[in-house]
Amino acid sequence: MGILILLVPVTVLLGLVGVGAYFWALRNRQFDDLKTPALRILFEDDHQKEEEKL
Fold first, then answer.
1. What is the largest CA-CA distance in the chain?
2. Alpha-carbon distance 22 to 5, whole Å?
3. How far apart are CA 34 and CA 28, in angstroms?
4. Using an 8 Å Cβ cutoff, are 4 and 12 in contact?
5. Spatial separation of the C-alpha atoms in residues 23 and 30, rounded to whole Å
6. What is the CA radius of gyration of the chain?
7. 45 Cβ contact list (under 8 Å, min separation 6)
8. pLDDT of 14-47, one tens digit each?
9. What CA–CA distance (Å, rounded) separates 27 from 29?
10. Which of 6, 20, 25, 43 has its CA at 20 to 30 Å from residue 31's CA atom?
């Protein structure tokens, strides 16, 4: 039973850290564009094309 005195506050603290991280991501616009990063890998960069020409 004594371990619960330690585990419950640690669990609450970790939950608050997770909620804080979520709201930080919302405030910093991390979820604005979900499609472009997934599609970006399908297209070649212009920088790579220039190196191939040399």
1. 70
2. 27
3. 14
4. no
5. 10
6. 22
7. none
8. 999 999 999 999 999 888 887 787 777 787 766 6
9. 5
10. 43
